[in-house]
Every structure is written in C-alpha cells, then in structure tokens.
Amino acid sequence: MMDDAGLPEDVPLAAVRRGELVESVHRGRFAFCDPEGSELEVRGDPEAYVYLRSSAKPFQALPLILSGAADAFGLTGEELAVACASHNAEEPHVAAVGSILEKAGLSEDDLQSGVHPPMYGPAAAELIRRGEEPRPIHGNCSGKHAGMLAVCVHEGFETLDYRDPGHPLQRRILGLIAEVCGVEEDEVLIAGDNCGVPAFALPLRSFATGLARIATGEGLPDRLAGAALRIRDAMRAFPFMVAGTGRFDTELMERTHLLVKGGADAVLAVGDPEGWGMALKISDGSHRAVRPVALAALGHMGVQVGDGDSIVRGLHGETVGEIGPLI
Amino acid sequence: MMDDAGLPEDVPLAAVRRGELVESVHRGRFAFCDPEGSELEVRGDPEAYVYLRSSAKPFQALPLILSGAADAFGLTGEELAVACASHNAEEPHVAAVGSILEKAGLSEDDLQSGVHPPMYGPAAAELIRRGEEPRPIHGNCSGKHAGMLAVCVHEGFETLDYRDPGHPLQRRILGLIAEVCGVEEDEVLIAGDNCGVPAFALPLRSFATGLARIATGEGLPDRLAGAALRIRDAMRAFPFMVAGTGRFDTELMERTHLLVKGGADAVLAVGDPEGWGMALKISDGSHRAVRPVALAALGHMGVQVGDGDSIVRGLHGETVGEIGPLI
User: Fold this and answer.
1) CB–CB of B277/B208 below 8 Å?
2) pLDDT tens, chain B, 327 aa long
3) What's this model's pTM, rounded to 2 decimal places?
4) Are strands A49-51 and B276-282 parallel, antiparallel or unpaired?
5) Is B74 helix (H, G, I), strand (E, B) or coil?
6) Which of A23, A51, A125 sits opposite B51 (nearest CB)?
7) ipTM score
8) A10 near A285, Cβ under 8 Å?
9) Distance linking the first and last C-alpha atoms of chain A
10) How far apart are CA A233 and CA B85, in angstroms?
11) Whose CB among B56, B110, B115, B270 lies 3.0–4.6 Å from B278's, allowing a Cys bridge?
C-alpha cells in the first residue's frame, strides 16, 4: 500500500532513547521469505519497491562466475569476496582489488568507481598523513567495478562504457537479478547508483526471495545455483573482505552462519543457507538503526546474536542513551 | 498525542527521490509560535517533548550577559557568537574560544567539552597533517563550555564540576530556559548531552515560543529581553562564528534576517525578530532533511529562501536524486 505521496506503508522499528524520553524513531519494513517466495515474517508493505543499492552486489558478481572469468583469471576467494564488498579501503581490500585488475590485465586507471575517502577513518587518515589524495580504488565499490571490468575483458566487451545501463554486462546483470528474484525484467526499476552503475529496485518480497535463493541455491536452475553458492561461500569465508574493521556485515557473518550484505540508505540483505532470505529497509535511510533492528528480527527467526540494544555514549564515555528495537 | 511506544504524532516532511521512486522518507514535527505562545502553523504534535540539544545554546549563553561576565571580561561579538555555536573548529572558531578562556584567566585545560575531530573536514585533515590529536577546544561545543566557565569565574563558582546538573550555573540555566519558554522548571526534562552538560527537553510548542521571545525580546521581563537581544544580535552579526563553512545555520543567517541554531539529531531553532519562533524536529534525527524542510516551512511564513529541493549527486557529479519537502 502506498499513500498519496508514494510512500510505502512502514512501521516503527527502532527508538533512540535519551533520559526518560524517546529522542528519535526509525520506521521501516522487512520481509523474510523462503526460496519459493513464501513470506515467513513481514513488517510493513512487502510489495512496495526498495532500491537494493550495495545489497545487490552478490547478484552483480554472478557474471564473474557464470562467464568463467573468475576461473580464467584465477581469482581467489578473497578477491571474489571483495568483488561483492562495500569495503573500508583497508590494506587487504585495496590489495585484493588491485590484484583483480592486474589478473585481468588492467590497472587502477580503468576503474570508474568514483572517488571518496576510505570509509575506515584510520585508512582515510593514513592517506592524509602520506599526502595522498583518495583514488577510485579506495572507493567502497571498487571491488565490484574491478569484477565488472574482469568480466568485460573475459567476454571481449568494451571496458570504457561498462557503467552504461545499455552495456551488455549491465543488461546481463539486470537479467540475472530478475531471474534470481523471480520477476520480469521490466518489473525491475533502474536508476543511477552513486558509484555510477545502475541501481536496481524491486518489491521487498522479491528481494528477500532472491536472497533466499542466493543463500541456499534452491529455486534456481543448476547453472545459477552453482554460481550463487560460490559467491555465498566466498563472502562467508572472507567476511572481512566484504566490509572490514568495525562493520556490521563483517561482524554478523563472523558471529553467525548467515550471508550478510548492507547497502546505502539503510538497506540490509541477509540470507540463511538453511532456508530463507531477509530484506530490510529503514525508511529514513539511517544506518544506526540497521543493527538493532536486524538483530531483533533475526531473533524472531531463531538466530540469537544479542538483544539488539546499542548504547549511545557521550564524549566522556558515559551512557547518554540507547538505540533499541521496537519489534 | 503519543502512541503506545511513546512516539509523538509526526507527519512525512521530506522525500529522498531516486529515479522514479521515493527511496527514503523523513517524518517530523514543527511549530511556529508567536511570543505569546499562540501557534501560527503546526505539523505533527506540538505538545510532545523534544530535546533541544545544541539549539539550546542561545538560552545557555544568557548567563554570560545576565551575570555581567561578558562585560567584565570584555567579550567581543564574535566571542558571544562562538559561545552559542556548534562550530566547525576552523581557525577563527578556535581562536575565539581560546580568547574567551584567556580573558577569563583560564586555559584549554579547563575545558571539559570532550574530544572529537573538527566537524569541518579540511580542519580535521589539517590536524592530521600536523600530526596533532583533536583537543577539547576543537569540539563543536567548546565555545559554549568556555562561556560557561567564564560565568563561573565571574560568579566565583567552582569550575571543576561546572557540567553537573546540580552546579549553580546549570541550575540557573534550567531556570532561564523555563522562564523564557514559559514553563515550570519541573516541566523541563533533563538528560545528558553528548558533551557532558545537561540536555533539556520541552514541548515543541514551548520551545518555539521561547525562540520567538529570544528573537524579538517580546514576552520577557526587561532584564531578560536585553540579554536575549544581545545574544541574538551577536549571532546575527557573526553567523560564521555560529557554525562555519558550508553549514546551514551560517548560510540561512547570511541569506535572511532570521536567528538560526541547529542541534544534534536534526533539531532546528529559528527565530524571526519580526515576530515568531519555529522549532523543528526530524523524527529520525537525519540532518539531511533539515534544510529542505526548513526552507519549505519558512516559505509558508513568507520567508522565501529557495524551494527546498536539494540535488543528490553521485561520485561522478551526476544527479542521482533529490531531497525535497513534502509540505
């Protein structure tokens, strides 16, 4: 259900408390689905669209496996994981991205991932100390772009315009997302992501279903199931490469058996290899609400990681509040 | 009206659009009131409480004037403005805070404002380049703390425990906030702010009324009116000192005749010297929604600053979306 302004129906999911009061509140939606698309638990409207943003990266990496590029270039598990990453630009991330490019016969100059300072504060500070400007390889999406470029080289596609929605690689990714999530291609809405490649939007329920299929391999034709499980296993084997120090995706994969990939504007994709996928969107795009809501929602599905409360500390280290789930 | 979870009634105020869809939405509340407390325009529940956070700084600076400390120490307009600031720690801010301390016979060692990197990226980078750690004087609240310390010295209050809610200065500030906003002291709820001094919560309507009084001097006894207008005039005369490069408070004061002070978790206080105050709270605490919502709301009151739309750009400089008001 959408209201007059085109806003999906959502519900309060987390409260930021300070003293006796709720200071701020975060609304949102989530859906748990099995590989057949059946809803296991839902809050808010599961049919309304959500931009997958970087939570699409495991889907966007499928052509690396399916094309044979990963094998042809001898990509390692760490390199496959960083191709699915929103990474911190810590040294292992930058090294792995550089290695993908080198194996594909390319260089940093071929990356069109845009420039922003490393997400990890100490990595950003280290660049400043060295008197260096951030480069595209430091962008959190550089592994995805390196993976895309490797597919282009392997397939003989043009590498100069690989970001274009009409480029054969981007058309292939669109087809794969539609197929894995069980929708028609024209049901996938496309806009621009901040790093310059297509951003995909789907109904929340279809997104959750696709995650269930990526995480389990179920509900997919054999060629896709094998590729999905190889992506899943690389991310699970190298959770640091998918995000990095202090990041929730890395923490949650290290502490559980789950597949986890967050995205900008507070999207989270989780897949349980034992049978379901979850898609979460905090309506206001606030990252701080993702962890407490996700841990509480996972608890409903029997995955106990903690109670989801997060202490908010002041500058003197004192407790000034907490962010807790409302579910 | 509060729902079962203690959440105030709010309304959608801004939408983040990407491509054909609303990607994210920000809800909130605002109230415009005149100095008598009459509501001029309201969205959401005006009676529900809101933490003033740093929007309280103009109130917290009143004792500087009322005690005579500002005159005794010969504080300049820039120094009064930085005492009301959430500043960027650019060189003029740090110099003004240092000057307040020096005039009061104190030093940086007396500041208990806590440590965080300068809010202004280039100032933070400059510290790193110089191999220096951030100090309390770089904290955005250091001017407020320096002002509080100056009052303590002038009044003969203890300076070691000035952050304590029971300290005579903090008791005095509580009394002033209650008096200016037209509520009883026990109606003001107190918690800890992140910089370690009390954070005050009031009904949104009372907060807006207090701002109308600070901005106009109306509805206040003479001693308070004079102090309020002196604070207002210092902030209006030196908008850079209140925030800094690229900051909305500074921009809005430079472009209008208004008094403007933002606060953490997306609070905004605006006062029109010609007759009203506005208090705004974005329910989810997202700073990005403050500007478009404030500009749209101000437009309703006849203050035309722009249409409130803000382009969201990708890393290649291209337009990927916009944040626009829903009011």
Assistant:
1) yes
2) 456 667 999 999 999 999 999 999 999 999 999 999 999 999 999 999 999 999 999 999 999 999 999 999 999 999 999 999 999 999 999 999 999 999 999 999 999 999 999 999 999 999 999 999 999 999 999 999 999 999 999 999 999 999 999 999 999 999 999 999 999 999 999 999 999 999 999 999 999 999 999 999 999 999 999 999 999 999 999 999 999 999 999 999 999 999 999 999 999 999 999 999 999 999 999 999 999 999 999 999 999 987 666 888 999 999 999 999 999
3) 0.96
4) unpaired
5) coil
6) A23
7) 0.95
8) no
9) 21
10) 51
11) B270
Our separate counts of H helices and E strands in chain A read 13, 11
Q: Confirm if A9 and A44 have CB atoms less than 8 A apart.
A: yes
Token pair of A268 as six digits:
């989270």
Chain A closest-CA separation from residue B183 CA (Å): 18
Helix (H) or strand (E) holding A213: helix A204-216
Q: What is the largest CA-CA distance in chain B?
A: 62
Of A12, A196, A316, the CB nearest to B7: A12
Beta bridge partner(s), residue A282: A28
Task: Take residue B13 and report the two structure tokens written for it.
Answer: 């105020």
The pair of three-digit structure tokens given for residue A111, joined into one six-digit string: 């990356």
- Single-letter amino acid code for the residue at B154: H
Q: Do B314 and A26 touch (CB under 8 A)?
A: no
